[in-house]
Amino acid sequence: MEQQPTAVAFKRLDKVREVLPIYPSPTPLRLPELPCPQRKPAFDVPFTLSTHIIPAAYIRTTTPVPVPDSLRQDTSKDEKRQGIKHIHKYMENARKISLSGSEGYPQALWNCVNRYTRNNSNGSGPSTQRITLFFAHANGFTKEIWEPMLGYLLSSKSSQIIDEVWTWEAVQHGDAGLLNADFRSGSFDTTDNSRDIVNFLCNFLPEKATTEALPLHLARVSETKAAERAQRGFMGRTLVVIGHSFGATSLIHAASLFPKLFTSLVLLDPILLEPFVQEEIDRTIGLVLGAIGRREEWPSRPAALKSLFETAFFRSWDPAVLSVYVDSALYDTPQGTARLKMSGIQEATIFLDLQTPTEAFQRAIEIEQQIHLRFILPGKPGLVSFAGSDKRMWLRTGNSTNTKIRKAGHLIPQEAPRELAEDLNRYLLESFNSVNRDLHKAHIRSYL
């Protein structure tokens, strides 16, 4: 149910950091291959999946710091508790050190993306008027985590106005995390994920959707084209971006800095911390400690699936999503075990970044009015109180709507993929019905 906007009052930050520019990454001596075999999607709809690699934005906000060792699984409860406390203290200090430099650090990294393209799109005629969807995942998940929801969405009526879907993978997650394994750091700043996303959209997203196969390493567009996109947006695409949690926070920064790239911004329970509210900061401590103590290895994938399902955190998930998670978030080690591609320590580095979500709270108000904002929030208690949710979803009242997925908590795509797909289906048809009408008219003309 849509809520009516109310005035939002909060104490503003004196200053929001300037985000580093996006520099082109130096040409590597050797281009990497995918660390895991190309997989098939977890749905059966007329869209084709391919996975691609791009260089991340060059110059990173944080200076690399040593990564503490993960806790051994055979430690006692007391040893584990003390170990988590020790690692937490180290990582808090490491983050301060990593941000002490103001000019960034010259590190070349990689991102991965999945592309799902229509089997019958030809890149010309009415299909160029369809929309492109871009999804950015939450902390700790992979680019594949959206597939159960996509299976429903791409089987719905709105699939007729969707030309292409791209799902994002941040540098320490999933396959991208394996590619960057030698350059892991004990600190991370979420603005770098925002910069990486903009880097992809400006410099590597192909000009228009097509059924043609694309190379593993996507080609960089010209400097002129990239500048044109940043200043004017896309000529051959209507871009709708959907972000969850950490991904939504990243997109808020991206949209506030490069508004012309975006037509619509759909935010699934974004991590937005109200400035100077200690209660919201305190809530994140449990997330950090939980990530540090996370189990990372199992004897096999079936053993991992069984073990995860027996925990309260994963038991609330849709079974199809849990299956995709085990398939995509783990890799087979040389010892024959199944291990998380992203360690709990890496997950904790993101939860420790409280500055970016606080700045995003303020940046959300500044997003230009021509970008439609859509907040999708949980119907069950999440990372913030319901009062806090109500405040967030009307940070910018103009050209903004919101809804709640009643059966889900914070992990909306994991717990309610069908319901999320149904909501996105309605939203896309209502928001882009003019595109739908153009397609219908073109279809009729083709028979005249």
Description:
Helix content is 38%, strand content 15%. It is α/β, with parallel strands linked by helices and 448 residues long. It has one domain (47-445): Rossmann fold. It starts with 46 loop residues before the first strand and ends with a helix. This is AB hydrolase-1 domain-containing protein.
Proportion in β-strands: 5-15%
Number of strands: 11
| CATH homology group | Alpha/Beta hydrolase fold, catalytic domain
Query: Taking strands numbered 1, 2, ... along the chain, how are they ordered across the largest sheet?
Result: 1-2-4-3-5-6-10-11
Biggest pleated sheet: 8 strands, mixed
Total tally of structural domains = 1
**Number of separate helices:** 16
Pfam families: Abhydrolase_6
Protein name: AB hydrolase-1 domain-containing protein
Domain AB hydrolase-1: 134-422
Secondary-structure topology with pairs:
Elements lengths: L46 E9 L21 H22 L11 E9 L12 E6 L10 H7 L8 E8 L4 H6 L11 H13 L19 H10 L5 E7 L1 H12 L6 E5 L9 H15 L4 E2 L2 H9 L2 H4 L3 H11 E3 L5 E3 L3 H8 L3 H12 L5 E7 L7 H7 L7 E6 L6 H4 L1 H15 L1 H13 L3
Parallel strand pairs: 3-4, 3-5, 5-6, 6-10, 10-11
Antiparallel strand pairs: 1-2, 2-4, 7-9, 8-9
Helix pairs in contact: 2-15, 4-6, 6-12, 7-11, 8-10
Pfam family, one: Abhydrolase_6
InterPro entries: AB_hydrolase_1, AB_hydrolase_fold
Protein name: AB hydrolase-1 domain-containing protein
